[in-house]
Design brief:
This protein has nine helices and 13 strands. The protein is an alpha+beta fold and about 240 residues long. The relative contact order is 0.11.
Length: about 240
């Protein structure tokens, strides 16, 4: 799924560290210099460079468009290992790479993690925006997300706002919205994953067999029988978003 960059901006502004405004955005010339060496950068990473320019995660910098001799430069020689380009390396911890051999049709590079203990590689996110969303979720104690569908959404985008006003929440929004409407108290098996900007919420189960179906229900009518009281919207949220 293509990243929603305005939702990514919202997440970054609510997640100190992942983007450092005082550093200032990276100049267009410097980004172009990086692309001269590396080829076209993935759109969400290029956007992050142009809007924010620098960030940190668990005590280590996220690579940026600094001069090549700088350790934090994405073009530093040590970062490139064939089809992998390291953009974040924790001292004695995980190392995150762009998978250059898996570029999507949207120009994005998937993100993989190399484990410091077994040396194996594990998928993290579909793109850089998804990587930031996943890290924000982990930092907030949300793990992968409330269910597999939302976890998959966050691996691509930090939430999504459609033209018709329907909003799927990112990691920076979902806790506050569920607390506001007391979902855990009135519907403990369910989670509010979005709203239609018109007073109706999108609900999914976070436990049980059916964690794929999405129901639409007035936010003032939350109860334990959401599958009965609500309107079934879809049982394939990501596919529905793709064609919507």
């Amino acid at each position: 799924m293509r990243p929603d960059l305005e939702q990514l901006r919202s997440l970054l502004d609510a997640s100190p560290g992942l983007a450092k405004r005082p550093a200032g955005p990276t100049s267009r010339d410097r980004i172009e210099n990086v692309q001269t060496r590396l080829g076209p950068l993935p759109p969400s990473y290029r956007w992050w460079l142009g809007e924010y320019g620098a960030g940190w995660l668990r005590g280590a910098p996220i690579a940026t468009a600094a001069p090549a001799e700088a350790d934090e430069a994405i073009t530093a020689d040590w970062r490139s290992t064939g089809t992998r380009l390291c953009f974040h390396a924790e001292e004695g911890g995980d190392t995150h790479y762009f998978a250059l051999d898996r570029r999507g049709i949207d120009g994005e590079w998937p993100v993989v993690r190399r484990d410091p203990f077994d040396g194996d590689e594990y998928p993290v996110a579909e793109n850089f925006a998804g990587f930031l969303a996943v890290q924000a979720a982990l930092a907030r104690g949300l793990r992968d997300g409330p269910n597999p569908t939302i976890a998959a959404l966050w691996r691509s985008t930090a939430g999504a706002l459609r033209d018709d006003g329907l909003l799927l929440y990112g990691p920076h929004q979902i806790q506050e919205r569920n607390e506001t409407f007391e979902v855990r108290e009135y519907a403990p098996d369910w989670v509010l994953v979005g709203d239609d900007s018109g007073g109706r919420g999108l609900f999914m189960r976070h436990r049980g067999r059916d964690r794929r179906s999405v129901y639409l229900l007035d936010l003032g009518a939350i109860g334990g029988n959401l599958a009965i009281d609500g309107e079934l919207l879809t049982d394939d949220l990501l596919g529905w978003l793709a064609i919507g």
